[in-house]
Design goal:
about 150 residues
Length: about 150
């Protein structure tokens, strides 16, 4: 067994560099990237042409923006009530989360609901909560109970 520094290339121990094969030529990488872009542009064009997006402009023009802003103004308060509920559930025996931490976890859960199924987003919220603030038993059980009661 030879030993040496990694710069000399004479090491065949556990820290020896591993060869993964030769990299693809530059023209091939450029070709693959170009094909990906072309497929993405085609899919966007296809969806745009089939979606009737021209009607969307007319709908946006006909909106009553006062009602839209009033509805949007209610959202932070609704999230605040849900975060307050999580704070009460989590801090029933001892102080685990503050108001801002609960609001942050609630925003994470609501944002994850846009992309993930509801149960998975709540598990994500519980996981991130106990990773950031500790006390996994309190946060996981409170998140589950919050889901059942909200």
């Amino acid at each position: 067994m030879t030993t040496g520094t990694p710069e000399s290339g004479a090491s065949d121990g556990p820290d020896a560099p591993v060869e993964h094969g030769t990299p693809a030529p530059a023209w091939r990488r450029i070709l693959v990237r170009g094909l990906r872009i072309a497929v993405a542009v085609f899919l966007l064009w296809f969806l745009w042409s089939r979606s009737g997006i021209d009607d969307l402009a007319e709908l946006v023009e006909s909106l009553d923006w006062g009602w839209v802003l009033a509805a949007a103004a209610v959202v932070p308060f609704a999230l605040g009530i849900r975060a307050f509920n999580l704070t009460l559930l989590t801090n029933r025996a001892r102080r685990v989360l503050g108001a801002w931490q609960s609001y942050r976890l609630t925003l994470i859960g609501v944002g994850a609901n846009l992309f993930l199924p509801t149960g998975v987003s709540d598990l994500l919220k519980a996981h991130l909560g106990y990773r950031a603030y500790g006390n996994p038993e309190d946060i996981v059980l409170s998140t589950i109970y919050d889901k059942l009661t909200a």
